[in-house]
């Protein structure tokens, strides 16, 4: 066992230039990265996904890329100005499901006043709920937020939002998929009303790196290769068939049929239009600045956050 190691001293060691990507591994949103690595990535070495997110870019210099919703991106960028958003993996129009039947009797967003609404505080889901209710004139104090967890596959356990909607612990809940789809199914589509508005809120699940990584020529070449592979993946996702739904279902522990049912809520974008993304970032940063007790960032600072040089190079 010792001899091969002596003959090939580097053969058993990971390459120093492997691309390291920190991302959630539980959600549909992350799966294009796994698909890109499996089918398309041709960098100088391997690429690996590890559990984490954009916060790791700030705390661990061995991480080259990270994926997260724009909410976490903005929170980190506020304190680490070297972070850059370089690609949009997916934009997800979250849904809020409410019980339209007794006892909640929700027929419109305005009916959510005074209700118990499930979500996960501190995440993009909480921002979504806050923005949806604000769009109907319902302020933060005029409803209660009840914390619950997600469910990826039925049957959903007792602490999950679909189970809480079913037994009346919440009147409604809003979060990323597939929990909302499973919540609708738990109470029956005829007893559910669904609210969704991509203008009011959509998750902008993005890929991030740092200026340090971008200014290292070898690293930049691998980042470009990875984004090129992601772009080919988004093309596959935009023309998804049963084998793609199964790939995604296997990665995140869902049923392929449920993946297909929520597919249309995900837009596999890649790039962005400044006039569509900037207003969302400016607004959201103002909200986050309040809850994080800091000054909002200037428009110029938010523009520096967005770096199109990698997309332009693919
Ligand atoms: C979505 O929200 C926008 C702004 O928040 C509003 O102008 C628009 O009417 C809403 N669309 C629907 C279908 O409610
Ligand atoms: C489904 O899509 C994948 C990826 O584009 C492709 O390789 C495969 O041939 C397709 N399968 C069918 C049955 O069309």
Automatic annotation (TrEMBL):
Residues 1-18 form the signal peptide. Coiled coil: none annotated. Gene3D superfamilies: Periplasmic binding protein-like II. The keyword Lipid biosynthesis does not apply. Keywords: Signal. It holds the Pfam family NMT1. Residues 55-234 form the SsuA/THI5-like domain. This is SsuA/THI5-like domain-containing protein. The lineage of its organism: Eukaryota, Fungi, Dikarya, Ascomycota, Pezizomycotina.
């Amino acid at each position: 066992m010792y001899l091969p190691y002596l003959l090939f001293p580097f053969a058993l060691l990971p390459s120093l230039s492997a691309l390291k990507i920190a991302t959630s591994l539980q959600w549909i949103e992350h799966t294009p990265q796994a698909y890109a690595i499996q089918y398309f990535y041709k960098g100088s070495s391997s690429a690996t996904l590890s559990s984490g997110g954009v916060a790791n870019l700030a705390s661990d210099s061995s991480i080259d890329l990270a994926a997260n919703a724009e909410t976490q991106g903005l929170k980190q960028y506020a304190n680490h100005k070297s972070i850059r958003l370089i690609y949009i993996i997916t934009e997800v129009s979250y849904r809020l499901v409410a019980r339209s039947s007794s006892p909640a009797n929700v027929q419109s967003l305005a009916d959510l006043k005074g209700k118990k609404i499930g979500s996960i505080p501190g995440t993009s889901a909480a921002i979504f709920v806050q923005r949806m209710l604000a769009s109907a004139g319902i302020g933060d104090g005029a409803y209660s937020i009840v914390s619950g967890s997600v469910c990826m596959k039925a049957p959903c356990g007792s602490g999950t939002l679909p189970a809480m909607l079913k037994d009346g612990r919440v009147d409604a809940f809003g979060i990323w998929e597939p929990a909302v789809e499973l919540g609708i199914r738990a109470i029956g589509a005829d007893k559910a009303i669904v609210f969704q508005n991509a203008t009011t809120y959509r998750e902008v699940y993005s890929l991030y790196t740092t200026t340090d990584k971008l200014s290292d020529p070898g690293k930049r070449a691998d980042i470009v290769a990875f984004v090129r592979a992601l772009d080919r993946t988004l093309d596959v996702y935009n023309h998804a068939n049963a084998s793609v739904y199964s790939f995604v279902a296997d990665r995140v522990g869902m049923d392929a049929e449920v993946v297909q049912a929520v597919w249309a809520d995900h837009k596999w974008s890649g790039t962005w239009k400044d006039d569509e993304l900037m207003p969302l970032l400016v607004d959201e940063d103002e909200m986050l600045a309040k809850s994080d007790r800091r000054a909002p960032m200037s428009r110029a600072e938010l523009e520096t956050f967005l770096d199109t040089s990698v997309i332009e190079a693919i």
